[in-house]
Amino acid sequence: MSNLTAALNMLRHRLIAPAVANAARCYAVKPAAPGEPPLLDQNDSNKMQLLKSKAGKKKKLGKLGPIMEKKIIPVETDANKLVNYVCGSNYFKTGEDVKLKPDSEYPDWLLTLNTDRIIPLEDLDPNSKQYWRRLRKLALRRNNQLSKLKKF
User: Fold this and answer.
1) Which of 97, 93, 104 is nearest to 81 (CA)?
2) Nearest CA to 121 among 111, 131, 113?
3) Where are the alpha helices (DSSP H) in 97-128?
4) Mind listing the pLDDT tens digit for each residue in 46-92?
5) Residues 6 or more apart from 81 whose CB is under 8 A from it?
6) Fewest 10 Å CB contacts: which of 12, 18, 35, 36?
7) Are 89 and 98 in contact (CB under 8 A)?
8) Are 50 and 56 in contact (CB under 8 A)?
């Protein structure tokens, strides 16, 4: 039995070990951009020098990627313009904001829209669709909160 084990170990060292040691590793390489010299074959020694020169040119990144500078957006402070125009409605480079019209120009339902806080569930009519949608939404939120408390 020991002769068989010794023969298998010798066979492993002669056949398998050299094949594993000489195995070439292949890595995905980003294709060269137009105007840059193409990357050389994997076995070429100049490839390492080329990769090292490119590595030195990279920009420093933050933990979450490149750091962006904050854009400062001007805020309108002119009271006359704030009252007569919809500030920020013009998204083109040229032109001006939309001018507000008198209330008689707009439909009646527009001025009756609820712009205050959300109506509480107790104040809604139980026969309305809005009531049942809100009730379902609140139940889903409650179930999600309870499922977070469960260990497993």
Assistant:
1) 97
2) 131
3) 108-111
4) 655 655 555 555 555 556 677 778 888 788 889 999 999 998 888 88
5) 87, 97
6) 35
7) yes
8) no
Residue labelled with tokens 């750091």: 67
Query: Token pair of 109, please?
Result: 């339902």
What is the secondary structure of the chain as a DSSP string? -HHHHHHHHHHIIIIIHHHHHTPPP----PPPPTTSPPPPPTT-THHHHHHHHHHTTPPP-BTTBSPPPPPPPP----HHHHHHEETT---SSSS-PEEPPPGGGS-HHHHTS--SSPPPGGGS-TTSHHHHHHHHHHHHHHHHHHHHH---
Longest dimension (CA), the chain: 106
3-state secondary structure of 46: helix
Q: What is the mean pLDDT of the chain?
A: 77
**Most confidently modeled of 41-50, 60-69, 126-135?**
126-135
Closest CA to 96 of 108, 83, 81: 81
